[in-house]
Amino acid sequence: MNNLYHISYEKERLDILKLIEIIKKDNWIDSSTILVTCSPDYSSFVSQLINHKLSYLNNNELYENLFLEMPYPIMSQVWDREKLEIVSFDTYLKEWVNKYLTNSLKYLFIDSATIRGRNFSKVKYSINNKVEYKFASLYVEEQSILIPDYYVEKYNEEEKGELIFTWENDNNPNWKKTKKL
């Protein structure tokens, strides 16, 4: 079994509060910001707390929230909820960008962790120069090919192990160690 870097419920909660403070101090988020929950099955709680805790910056209204599916590390496709079929992430992302992004708004892309950075890199490439955006993540692995604008902790997988949240299935085969590209 690989060495695992366990993130407890309490650490996750406290780190979300730290991330909120980091985002707030930047003075970037405002009423023209849309929150994008990346990998909703992993990042919804992070987005929910950010949305509620920073809603005072949006006249005490929750920010609009979009959901962006992202593939597991060993996959290159996602389930498209609108088409009700599996599609390549590249196709899905291109269609998602064209459908949901507007150049008059700003987008904060939120993921619970940036481990390899490939998904965020594809998002960045797809939206570059089309909209104003930033990336936020609780944790970022030092070797990630994209470092988010906002994060709480950089960690080294070689030293600490593969990141896993308490609520995750640590036997999930979709998280098997893959080459970093």
Question: What does this entry look like structurally?
Answer:
This protein has 181 residues and is α/β, with parallel strands linked by helices. It has helices at 9-26, 40-53, 89-100, 118-127, 157-160, and strands at 4-7, 33-38, 65-68, 77-80, 85-88, 106-114, 132-141, 150-155, 162-165. Strands 3-2-6-7-8 form a 5-stranded parallel sheet. Helix 1 (9-26) packs across helix 2 and helix 3 packs across helix 4 (118-127). The protein is globular, with a radius of gyration of 16 Å. The two termini are 23 Å apart. The model has no long low-confidence stretch (mean pLDDT 92).
Along the chain, the helix and strand elements come as EHEHEEEHEHEEHE
* CATH topology-level fold name: Rossmann fold
What are the low-pLDDT stretches, counting only 5+ consecutive residues below 50? none
Annotated CATH architecture: 3-Layer(aba) Sandwich
* Rg, Å, rounded: 16 Å
Indicate the CATH class.
Alpha Beta
Cα(first) to Cα(last) distance is 23 Å
Average pLDDT for all residues = 92
Task: Decide which structural class fits the backbone.
Answer: alpha/beta
Please list the strands of the largest sheet in the order they lie side by side. 3-2-6-7-8
Number of domains as seen in the coordinates: 1
Strand content: 25-35%
Question: What form results from the Cα inertia axes?
Answer: globular
Residue share in helix: 25-40%
